[in-house]
Each structure stands twice: as structure tokens, then as C-alpha cells.
Model the fold of this input.
Amino acid sequence: MTLTGIALFSNAQNAQYQDVNYTLDENHLTAEVASNPKVSGELLIPQTISVGQNQYTVTAVGDKAFKGCKNLTAVVLPKSIERVYRSAFEGTGIYLNKTNWRDGCLWIDSILIATDKTVKPRFVVPEGTRLIAAGAFQGNKTIQRVELPSCINRIDHETFRDCKNLQKVVIPPTITSIGEEAFTGSGIYLNDKKWKKGALIIDDCLVATNNDLPAKYIFKNKIPIRLIAERAFANRKNLKSVTVPPTVTAIPAAAFLKCENLTEVIIPETVREVGNFAFYNCPLLKKATLPAQLERLGMGAFYGCTNLQEQVLGDRIEILEPATFYMCRAIKHITLPAHLRRLDNGVFAGCSALEEIDLPATLTHLGEQAFAGCAVLRKVVIPAGINQIPKEAFKGCTRLYRLDLPDGLYAIGDEALEGCLALEKINIPKSTFRIGVHAFRNCQQLRGIALVDHIHMIEEGAFMECKMLEEVSLPESLQVLQKGAFSQCINLQKVILNARLKKIEDGAFFQCRMLREVQWNDSLRYIGTDAFLECKYLRAPVFDASVEIGKNAFKDTRK
Done:
């Protein structure tokens, strides 16, 4: 099946708080300052913001957040800020005001935002600096040597990009991560003598690789490598095998992205985190055994690893982020952490060989398309903490014959089980009040379904093309049966309308060709266009003038 229409990689949403725009990360309850093109005056960014029932910690000022705001004269940033983009303040009143610059550097609340040509060629970043913005030195041709202080822990992406005269950066041991292309185009990067066997290593940090990298890469350096930069091995098409050294504690974001011939990665037990898209689209990767003590597996970490074998996830992982194993078509079995709380959007979507999955009792969130396209998945028991089956959660699970739903479930989302061809029976909990658009569409073997009395909504096409349904009794709380709800249920023979039903919308029973009996009610006031079109065994009823009947509502029925 084709998986479309869902933002697999994000649970983000936009929100405004005190006239400032933010992007919210619902997984981690963090917020990033988004684009604010009309901000002016003095601005205070709070440490936390409240949106709905959640409180979010403000951790970043995003790309171009205030760019061009000439009337923005001052901003106070909270201590919770972990990342700032240089571009966030370009063209602002803060950036244009020379009194905000010292020794060729723009500072905001002890954050080094940007540098210019008046910076000293040999520059020592002072102790007390909270962080250095992404791209802070980018394109600076004056700088030759930079000493970083022990009070910062990250070199952000593109920090020293295109600093063509930069020959030395002193990286303290407090640095725990280096962003993508932090040194690309710098004097260090362009100096061939700095490269060893296709790798650029600064102090004890591997920051980049090139096409001279051997196919089988094993770290053999006099000084142990303690960290790998983001995207360090990305697009290395000759790379087939990597042994990560035991001195490394994290595989960073996009580290091995699109390594098309990578077949094996040996990950040491010291690794605690695998970053976002770490092995994105490594189609030949078969073996990547994850450490038992792993604490985080980032979104899209194994996206498109179509040959990846069975996985066992350690019990320290509490969240599986969006699209973690998306389109991992060779995985037949996966062991989930015992304390897992969230399965996010598209986690196992397209895992067409996945045969079984045991969801832990601790699970409280199931994302959209979580198992969409898992064609051979046969049985799933939904834990008690799940209160809805989300959009397209099991869409296209063609061999799913059993889905156990928990008490307390209030909704079955749009297209949640569409195309589950083998599903014969499902027990809908008494708490359920909504069955979404196309929720059970084309469940061709669905024979029995008890529609509990609390259901208020059976939405458009909910049971369309359920060819084996023979009898339906509508729930007592239902007042409107939406468009095409039971259309093309070609073996449906009997329908019992509930006492409160007032409206049957267009095409609700279109082409139910075996329908012979409908038990009508006295409250019905509207029957839509084509509602019973081509129900050739149904005798058209006679209604009084209070019932509005749409065009062709009973066309091709018995007279």
C-alpha cells in the first residue's frame, strides 16, 4: 500500500503565547520560538509556556525567528534555551545596534550570536558563555584560531562553516555533540594534511568523512574517539561496515544517512542514544544490535532500512518516536521495552513482514499510521491505557484477523482499519462514541459487529465495502447516519433503525443489493440522495410529508 497524507516525522503543532509564535514538540513537551516577522520593542521569552493542558519548556530560538524585525530592540532569553540560530536575529534592531557588539561579537544574555571581521584572529571564547549560536562564525575570514570554554557542551551546525583561514579549534572535553557541517569549508576542512584515511578528526572528535573512507571502517587512533559529529558518515556509498568505538556514548543525528551499501554496524554497550535519522535509508543494513542500556532511539532512526533484521529494544526506552522503523520490510519480530509509554506516528508503518507485536501494559499513546501496511500482522491486543485508535493506525493490515479493544476506548479514527481484509469480528467497547471516516472500509470478511448504544457518530463511509455484513442494528444514541456509511455492503440483508435516528445522508446504503428489510422509525425526517439506490430487493416505503426524500433515494428498488 502507499502511505500518504500523514506527517510521520512530527507531533509538532504551532501555537501563539503572549503574541509570540512557537512550534511545540508534544513528545518532549518543549517549544521553539518560530517565525515572528512583526515583533518590535523589548521582548521577554518565558522559560515555560502553557498551551491547552500542557506546559512546554522553551528550549530553542528557531531559524529566522525574528529575522528582519528592525524595531526589535532587546530580547531576554530564558536559561532553558539550548539552541539559537544566528539567522534568528539577522536584520533586527538588536543586530544593527553596534552597542550590542563587543570585540567583533554580538552577545545576547551571554549567548554568542554572531561575529564580524573585527573579531580577533586568535579568539578565546570567554568562560561564562552560555552557548554559541548555530552559524555564529560562519563565513568569517578573519578568524584563525578559536578556543572554546569548558562551560559549553555543543558546537552547533555550521558554526565554523566557510571560515577559510581557520586552522585550529580547541575543543574541550565538555563538548558532547557537534552539529552537521560545523567545519565544512573551513581552513581545517580544506587542509588535506588534517585528514587520515578519509576522516577529519579534531582533538578526539570525528567531525567529517570523505570518499577516501575504507569500506570496512574500524577506529584505530592513538587518541580514542569520544564523539561523532552529526552526518559524519552520511552518503558514504562505499562504506560497508563500521565498528563504533566503546568510547562513544551517542550515535548522532543522520550519522549514517543514505549509506547505501552499509550492511553492518557494531554498536558498543556504551551508547545511550541513537539520534534522529541515524541510519535513514540504509537499504542493505542487516545488523545493528542495539545496546540493552539504550535510552533513546530517535525519529526515523531506521527509516527505509529494508533489510534490517529482528530487533530487541532495552527497557530504558520509554518513547518510540515517529517513523523509527518505517518501511523496515524484513523485520518479522520486535521486542518492545517493558515500560514503553508512546508509539508515535508511523513507527512500524510499512513493516510488511512483521508477524506479531506484544504491546506493553504501560502504553498510553498510539500514533497515526503506527502499523499501517503491516500486511502479515495477524493479532494485536490494545492495552487499557489507549483511549482511541488513531487515524490509519492499522490501515492495510490485510491479514489482521483479531484486534482486541480495551474498555474505555472512546473513538476509532478515520481509516483506522481500512483494508483489513481478514478481520471477521470486532467487539466495540461500551465507551466508544465515534467511528471515523472509512474506519472499517473494505474489511471484506467483517461479519459481525455490535454497535453499542453510546455511539454518537458513524461517519462517512465507515463500513463501506464490508461485503460480508448481513445485519446491522444502529445504536440508540445515533441521530445522523453519514454519507455512504454502509454503501456497497453487497450482502447486507437487514437494517434496524434506532428510535432517535433523524437523518440518513446521501448514499448511506448505496448498492446494498441484497438488502430486503429495513425496520423504520417514526423520528426519521430526512433520507438523502441515492441513500438506497440499487437496493433492488428492498420495497420502497411510503412516508408522510414530514420526511424529506432526496433524488434517487429509492431508485431501482422494488415497487
Q: What stands out?
A: Helices lie at 93-96, 187-190. The first strand starts at residue 12 and ends at 17. Residues 197 and 213 are 6 Å apart (CA to CA).
